[in-house]
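Sample entry (417 residues):
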Amino acid sequence: MQDSLPQKFLPVAEQMDLLEKGAAEIIRVADLRERLEESRKTGRPLRVKAGFDPTAPDLHLGHTVLMRKLRHFQQLGHTVIFLVGDFTSLIGDPTGRNVTRKPLTRAEIDKNAETYKQQVFRILDEKTTEVRYNSEWLGKLGYEETIRLTAHFTVSQMLERDEFHKRFQEEQPISLHELLYPVMQGYDSVCLECDVELGGTDQKFNLLCGRELQRHYGQKPQIVLMTPILEGLDGVQKMSKSLNNAIGINEPASEMYGKLMSISDELMWKYFVLLTDLRGSQVEELKSNVASGVLHPMAAKKLLAVTIAADFHGAVAAKEAETNWARMFQQKKMAEDLEEVAIAFGGVVDSQGFLVIPKLLVQTGLAASNSEANRKIAEGAVKLDGDVFGGLRVKLPDLPARIAVRLGKRAKIAVIQ
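Predicted structure, serialized as tokens:
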């Protein structure tokens, strides 16, 4: 938990530049500004929470949109609360569901919760993050208190919720326990005395329940900050592993970088906004530079990919991924219009399994003899897959191997089988 001693905060305008970036809706912007001004005067950090039900063991970049917005508050000196919904997972969030969720066992929830904690601290600062479990208070609620909580809402209010309304109209079953979910989430905000709660736009009903309950308990209603749903690699559907359009935060840096480079130029800007710590004004400047021709879209996308990969794997791994991708891209580009030459394994590989480059140059017809090939290698005139090669042997890739071989201005693709 963060130190409660007075501290100095950035001017509100500077804080809002970062906090409003990527926000789909804030209820209400004026209230957030007022609360930030108050924190500057008193030195008291805002208490900001986002809840995550551990319903699956692995997270993808879509899950990190809220976590990153938590980090923005954290970077500005506010107290962030990573709330593990270990109790509400027993109910199952009805958000986006047209059927009742299958309840998880306590063992499944506990296992997933530990995995979440390991992953979230790739984004948040572990030392200054308040990790809470809503079983702390929900597990102690008696039957009487639960009744008092539910008395603050009506059935008609619950049926206004999109998911429930649609299911009711289509005569799909709505389990009674599902109606308790938004009430329980709202009570989380009361127990944590939240100033701000974060959630996706699909969570609006639940988030507003928190404001309602806080009023009943004599607290200032929390500000609600909602982020948009992140599209996956296809740029159309919500990022989801089941749709095969997701980027897992545990994927190797090279895979993460390569997938990010595959997204459309249009989607790139949404990823900049929702998946990086650049301020809104910085993203707009990048976008303007691309539009004016000062910056090539490919350069901007490389910046995006290396920035996100570095967040999860460190700067060194991200830079290596960038270099490897550039090499592969260069090889692919080089190979598009080159003649392919089929070469027998035995003609270019020695007894120890190494590819002999002078023999390769002769077999591809790029050099007339081994002596010419040796001389060109010594002159630095030979490139393999876009890189200057100065040796005589190299480890052979897995067969069949495709290698772009260049000598001076001439190049071919050697296909070794």
